[in-house]
Every structure is written in C-alpha cells, then in structure tokens.
Specification:
Length: 509
C-alpha cells in the first residue's frame, strides 16, 4: 500500500490507533465534514487544527448520509477520502457512516474537536447537532475549539463556477436569498409540529415489478421478459400522510380499503407511528393496486396495470364516512384532500368537507383512469389548490395560450385564496389572495422517478399555506421537496425534516 491508502482507516482501526497515540502523550485533533471539494478555506482550517495538537484526524460523511440536496456529493466518499489523505497536514482519514459524527466522536475520543467559527452560534442551542457533538466530545474528556480563518463554501463555488444550476436558477436563488432568510423558512417548517391535520383520500398500493427483456417471442409480436423481483410501497394518501407526519405530530388519516385483498396489515406496517388511521371498507370492492413493470437497467417503465373498481363507493360506506367526518372535521386545524379520481369522493363527502373544514387544501389528480373527469372545479371552495399544469388546463378548458388566464379561470370557478400550479421542467407558478403571482424554477439536478413528487409537494406545502406563509416561500419549499423526492424510486421513502432543512440551507449558499 502507498502512504495515502495507509492514512485511510475504518473507525475501529482508528480508535485503536488514537488510544495508542494518547497513551504516548500525543494530542489528537479531529475535524469533520463533507469535504466534497477541497478548497483554500479547508486548507487553512486544517493548518489551524494541526496547531492545536500533534495528530490531525479528518472524518468525512459517507455519500448516503450527505444532505446537501440532489446530485450531491459530486464526488463519492472513497474519492473524497483519498483527496484528504493526500494532504501532508492530515495524518488519518476515516469515513463516517451516519448523519452526525456523534457516535464516531465517542469512539475516536479526540482531545480536540475542531470546527469553523461559522458553527459557533449553534454551540449553545440544544436543538442543533453541534450542541450534541460538543456533548459527545466532552463525555470522553475532549473539548471543542473553533477556527477563525477566512471561510469559503464549496456549495457556493459549485453553484457559481461549476454550473450546478443554470444561470436563471442561480439568479433566482441570489434574488430570493436577498428577500428571505433560510433560518426563518426552516423555523416556519418547525412550527408545523403542533398542527392537528386530517388527511383524506384513496389508498394506493404501488407495486414495482422489475423485469429483464429477453427479446421477441417467435410466434407473436411480443417482447418476452424475465421477472426479477418486486418492491411494494405505500402510495396515494398513505404516502402523503407519511410525508406530513415527518413535520406534524398529530396526523389523522381517513381512507377506504376494499374488503377483498384489503392490505390492512400492509397499511398499518407502512405508515408512521404518529398517524392515526381510520379505514372504511368497501364490502364488494378491492384496495387499489397499481402495478408497474420496469426494466431496472436504466429504470425504464414498460407498462402499468391498474387493479381497482371504477365506480363510487357504496352508499352505506359513503354515509359512514360522512357521519364520521361530521364529528371529526371541526377538531382539526386543516384538512388535506388527495383526490385521485378513483371513486372515493362523491358529492356527499365533498359537501361535508366544504362545510366543516376550517382550512381546506385540495389536489385533484388527472391520470389515465380519469382523464378529463376529475377536475378541481367539482369542489366549490378551497383555501389552497395544488395541481399540475395539465390538471389546471383541463379544469379551465384552456388548452393553450397565456398561462395566467388559466389560473384566473380556476380562481373564478373555485372560491379559493391560494393556488400553486406545478409545470414540470418549467417550474412552479404561485398565486395568492392579493393577486400576486410568483414563478419559482425547479431545483432538480437528478431525476430517478417522478411518481409521488406531487403528493410530497402538496403534503408539506399545505400546512405552510395554512400558517399564512407567503406564496413565493411556499412554492420555494415545494420545489425543494420535489427535487428531493424525484431522486428516489416511487414512494420508497418520505421527505424527512433534517434532509429538507439542509437542502434549503444549501440553496441559500
């Protein structure tokens, strides 16, 4: 092995080395970070750290735990580790497989934990990671110190010099940062925690079947595929509820399941623990399952099969839901409707939602099973509408032309104060009660799967609107959520607060 590779150790190896060094009377200093692009600020930081002791250890966050947003880090952890190990000032490098270095600090037991001065304000805030990191260091007899060298930001460098985002997006982010503060936006999201929210809509079981193409069969014009495996996710209103439950402690879910193949146990096992679920049962129906068949090589979707009953719920089931909602709706700060157009929302359920909801947020989805028949205009009132461009144009009967006319038509037809229309790669349009309009570009740099991104957008922006957040801020949050969600397969995971907070901070740099 060469000298560089000898510097890179796993945490167990490094803990033993540090114990021996300390026994010899050596003073060990540890720095920690992502170090995705080593720049002059890092070099000055490492030089200052080395002056605090005899041995300098640098730990870096493993790829899967970096929360700087889609497409980050730009270099994998082994490349980052080798870059650091090549620096003469650094004695050892280790990769930390966790979101924070708390457990690693307890294991390595450095004499000094060295951080940049930009983190010093967080030292006395128990809600911040640095507070917990400092506690970990002190628990093993170490101390925390700060450097006051000139700081640089790798994220800033990437954004401004390596075309992480196109110029229009960079210009927007610079302008947005002059008007708003990242900490205030994060505080807004944190303040959603105490809200009581009822979310209602269709349960959808998303099944991803992975198949490998084998070629044309001899007797027909068909392509044969080899079945490999499958993944099953909680979709529809379940996915929305899971996103929401990361930010709000009190989430009440109302949905319907078919008595046949009802997936009730699957639902219980795949929703978060702070979600109270009240399922109603269609005695003659089935739970909706959408089976997608995918070639995993390049994640190419080949076709999709819907398993559902294309009709409204039986009258008795609908009446039971109405009676239940009549008593429950007044108890909640807001209601979120996820209407996928598969027969759950009849006129009676819509009427009780309109009459009894304190704040009503609605999405009506257009899909292949309901194209043109599931429009936002079937709801006479909404406090917040969140739909995509196709859904908006269908509702406005406005196929082409100026987009501002589409939103005006919808706001005239539905008594609503706020509307957001997502437009794919063209970004998002937001309109508020004062007739202000805002255009927010997308922040996506990597797209794996778009399924569920709109649900995540709705789930996290709706309570922000209910809290009175400005609509440009709401749309900004929504686009950040969307950028994170499209990097995962379907509804495999939900948006978590810390991940979103970190991405928002990254966008402001």
């Amino acid at each position: 092995m060469n000298d560089i590779s000898q510097k890179i150790k796993n945490s167990d190896e490094l803990a033993k080395i540090v114990a021996d060094l300390k026994f010899q009377g050596k003073k060990v200093v540890q720095c920690h970070g992502c170090f995705e692009l080593v720049h002059p600020g890092h070099l000055a930081h490492f030089e200052a750290a080395k002056k605090e002791g005899d041995i300098l250890i640098v730990s870096l966050t493993a790829d899967q735990f970096v929360r700087k947003g889609p497409g980050r880090p730009i270099f994998p952890n082994d490349v980052r580790a080798k870059s650091l190990a090549s620096l003469h000032v650094i004695d050892y490098v280790t990769i930390d497989y966790d979101f924070t270095p708390i457990e690693l600090l307890k294991k390595i037991k450095p004499n000094v934990y060295f951080k940049g001065s930009e983190y010093e304000k967080a030292l006395n805030d128990p809600t911040r990671n640095l507070y917990k990191e400092a506690e970990a260091v002190r628990s093993v007899g170490g101390e925390i110190k700060f450097s006051y060298e000139t700081t640089h930001s790798a994220t800033n460098f990437l954004k401004n010099h390596l075309e992480l985002y196109p110029k229009p997006v960079k210009d927007f982010l610079d302008d947005f940062a002059n008007k708003h503060d990242a900490r205030q936006i994060i505080d807004l999201l944190k303040n959603l925690r105490e809200m009581k929210i009822l979310i209602i809509g269709e349960t959808i079981i998303d099944e991803y079947n992975y198949c490998e193409g084998m070629g044309k069969i001899p007797k027909d014009n068909l392509i044969a595929t080899k079945y490999l495996n499958k993944e099953t996710f909680a979709g529809g209103v379940l996915a929305c509820a899971n996103h929401l439950a990361g930010f709000c402690d009190n989430v009440h879910l109302v949905t319907a399941l078919g008595r046949k193949n009802n997936y009730e146990n699957f639902v219980k096992q795949n929703i978060k623990s702070n979600i109270t679920c009240r399922p109603f049962f269609d005695e003659e129906g089935q739970t909706i399952v959408k089976r997608r068949f995918i070639d995993p090589s390049f994640f190419i979707k080949m076709f999709e099969i819907y398993h559902f009953d294309d009709r409204h719920l039986p009258k008795q089931t609908s009446d039971d839901i109405v009676n239940y909602l009549n008593g429950m709706l007044p108890q909640y700060d807001m209601v979120i409707v996820t209407d996928y157009g598969h027969g759950f929302f009849d006129k009676n359920i819509i009427n009780i939602l309109i009459q009894k909801s304190k704040f009503l947020a609605i999405n009506t989805q257009t899909n292949s099973a309901n194209f043109g028949f599931n429009l936002i205009t079937k709801y006479p009132r909404a406090d917040y509408i969140c739909i995509d461009e196709q859904e908006a144009r269908l509702a406005a009967h406005h196929k082409g032309g100026e987009f501002t006319e589409v939103s005006k038509k919808i706001l005239n037809n539905v008594s609503s104060r706020n509307i957001i229309i997502t437009r794919g790669h063209r970004g998002t349009m937001a309109y508020d009660a004062q007739n202000n309009s805002y255009t927010i570009p997308i922040f996506s740099t990597k797209i794996v799967d778009r399924v569920g991104a709109g649900d995540a957008f709705l789930a996290i922006t709706a309570p922000c609107v209910a809290k009175g957040a400005p609509m440009d801020v709401v749309a900004f949050i929504g686009n950040a959520v969307g950028a994170l969600h499209v990097t995962v397969v379907g509804n495999k995971s939900s948006i978590e607060p810390d991940t979103l907070y970190k991405f928002i901070q990254t966008l402001f740099k």
